[in-house]
Amino acid sequence: MWRRLLTGLAVLAVLAGCASPPQYALATVDVPVGMCKDKTLAEEMAGFSDSAPAVPCTAPHTLETYGSGTLPEVVSTLGPERPGPEILAGVTDAACSYDPIRPYLGATALDSTWGIEVFVKFPTRAEWAAGVRTVLCDLAVGTSRPPRATLPLKDALKYTDSARLRMCRSGTTVVTCDQPHDAERAGDVDASGADADRTARCQAAALTYAGAAKPSRVVLNDGTAECWVTGQEQTTGTVRTGLVAR
Amino acid sequence: MSDHFTTTGRHAGHRGESMYIDARPPTLHHRTREPRRRPAGLVFAGLAAAATTVLLARLFAGGPIGLSDQGDGNRLLCSLGLRQGNPYNSSTTDYLYLIWYDHTWYGEDCGATGTGEPYHSTQLWLAWPAKWLTHALTATDGLDLRVLGVICALLTGLAIAAVAMAVPLRTVGRSVVAGALTLIMADGTFAGYLISAYSEPAGFVGLLALVAGVLLYLRHPRWWGLLLVAGAAAFTIGAKTQTVSLLASVVPLLLLVRGPPVIGRLVVSIALCAGTATYLGAQPERFTVQNDYTAVFVEMLPNSPDAAADLRRLGLPERWTSSAGLPVNATGSAAYDPEFYTFSAHAGLADRLGVYAADPSRLFGMLGRGLDGMGKLRAIYVFSYPESAGRGPEATECRVCVIQILWKNTFGKAAALLVAAVLACAAICAFGAVSADRRRRAAGGTGLFLASAVIAQFWAVMLTEGASDLLKHMVFANLLCLILFVVTGAALATFREPVERDPDLTYARAFGHNYGRDLRT
User: Fold this and answer.
1) pTM, full prediction
2) How much is the pLDDT for B151?
């Protein structure tokens, strides 16, 4: 009886050991700007490295690499073992600059985005041990809902389908412009001067943004004068002018 | 089963229903009449079936219940290519999600949170066939935790029956033991784990099998018993690293109980220790760091009379006193400091013991906190129902709560009683352990084994993880304690049984074995 039981357990152990090993894709240093990955779980999005195979950016995906970065020396020189997740999480802002994001999205000074987040992917433990210190700087859209895009983010704000990335407002709730909304942000204006001055600047910005005179209002927010193109009723889509179809 | 579970019927007044393994060749039999074959296999099957049925009924009658995943489940089941069925980016703690779907994980996305190091547990040996059966029997592509629950209930039922059959009592006594163990395992404290993504069920089954093995080995110290004890211990330790404390009880048992040749016992002990070391070495380093952090910042410093002095003694920056009481990933945690990179080199178990050695009275405070945790018995921050049950989030079931009600009304109100109870059980069992009667020795020795295992497990938890997630981590200490109570009851019952004499000298000499105490009787 016991012998049979032990034999059975041994067979199970062997079978359990046959679980498929994870598949690896490009090394961190070989990932080019504009590569897309499809990570459908929050656990995967939060992973500290990225070994998933690439997918076409026209296929459903969640992450798009907009650049690469380097770690601060205080972390990159710690040693051959990759530091713990807390140490790495503490340097994400320093590792990936936000400056390249707006040019990557094709944004002008008047374009405001909403729902785009930055994810930093570090070298795997094996890569770190081999001396790799390059990090990947990825963009993700709408992580609060199933975040699968089917179009690339590269120059996305130049296209007519960019409402999904633009900042709008429904009442006091900020939403993307593909959702029902009653105001669309048309950039910021100089906050100095009187209300009338700011309103005039905002009207000019709204005209440039929408290509036609539109009702607008200024919202002072923490020292910034936000200019919003407003409407009487809820609508979806963007009023941005000068966009081209894909 | 019937190959080994034979009866003796040699003693006046003894109904010969105790489990006895008689390997003597027919020519050496001293019996003057053919032994009556008792249906020991049938009793075993009946007890196993009854225990399994009770467990299944308490798990499924009225809708399935289990335990929600507070984060540990994913690291286990992802290695089988599974993901939990919760909506995107939602909490997995509020509800029990019964279905884990097939999913392809890449690289470090699967494994210890934050590092992706692979996590190993013998629970995967139960989850893998459950996944296979889910594919074979249902339309679900993945793992249905209800299937895993059936497997776990069946194995638990078999293990309960094995313990009952190994207890040196008559059928009635064995039935009582089986009933008590079933009541324990059916309690809300333990049963929920059987339908969960946690690795505890393998530990529960392994512990019960280990107790059965120890009972048998102490009564019949032979090779198969030695291997059964070592195998069950390895399986249990392989389920959860915290049960490595069992080595402190198992290795002395293997080395000190005379039976198989000492070289064999030594080899098995070394193999068990080496296997355990290999297993521990293969576990995620991240766990070690997390445990070290917790032991220092959640257990040691908040309860220290001088936290800065403790950090100085450990060779750590005094500025980290501000992190005392904070979890590892909380804002303000010292783990965010690049200097934390070398933390574990300063704050390992030996280093921490050095701090406590400087002021051993602090261990009394730790003892009190641990006993308070044990007194609560059940982890109340993991929940029982799937969303479809309609009970809302964070609902806890109490279908079978006899044990926890009794426990909380005694040890929950006066934790010191727990120490008294364990010591009383140990004293009673020690009385049996030195008896000349094999059955009393087996039950008493097993009780002593369990008492030492409770103490070792308690301190293993307190010194490695401390106050963090204490109620859940104490589950094995609590289970060992409850089994100790049952075995102590069985040990007391053996005093009412007639004496069972050891194999005679002729038998022992014929086989060339030194059966230790047996030869002297």
Assistant:
1) 0.86
2) 98
Residue B411 has pLDDT above 80, yes or no: yes
Residue B9 has pLDDT above 70, yes or no: no
Q: Are B471 and B193 in contact (CB under 8 A)?
A: no
- Lowest mean per-residue pLDDT among A174-183, B44-53, B512-521: B512-521
DSSP structure class, residue B70: S
Q: Which amino acid is at B215?
A: L
Chain A contact set for B109 (CB, 8 A): 22, 39, 41, 43-44, 47, 51-52
CA dist A76 → A150, B80, B119 (Å): 35, 34, 27
Which strands make up the sheet holding A63-70, listed edge to edge? A54-55, A36-37, A63-70, A134-141, A116-121
Cα angle A83-A87-A93, degrees, rounded to a multiple of 5: 125
To the nearest whole percent, how much of chain B has pLDDT over 70?
88
Spell out the SS3 assignment of chain A.
CHHHHHHHHHHHHHHHCCCCCCECCCCHHHCCCCCEECCCCHHHHCCCCCCCCEECCCCCECEEEEEEEECCHHHHCCCCCCCCHHHHHCCHHHHCCCCCHHHHHCCCCCCCECCEEEEEECCCHHHHHCCCCEEEEEEEECCCCCCCECCCCCCHHHECCHHHHEEEEECCEEEECCCCEEEEEEEEECCCCCHHHHHHHHHHHHHHHHCCCCCEEEEEECCEEEEEEEEEEEECCCCCCCCECC
Do B286 and A84 count as a contact with CB atoms less than 8 A apart? yes
For all residues of chain B together, what is the average pLDDT? 89
ipTM: 0.83
Task: Please check the confidence at residue A233 and state whether its pLDDT lies above 50.
Answer: yes
Task: List chain B residues with CB under 8 Å of A124.
Answer: 107-108, 116
Q: How many CB pairs under 8 A join A and B?
A: 121
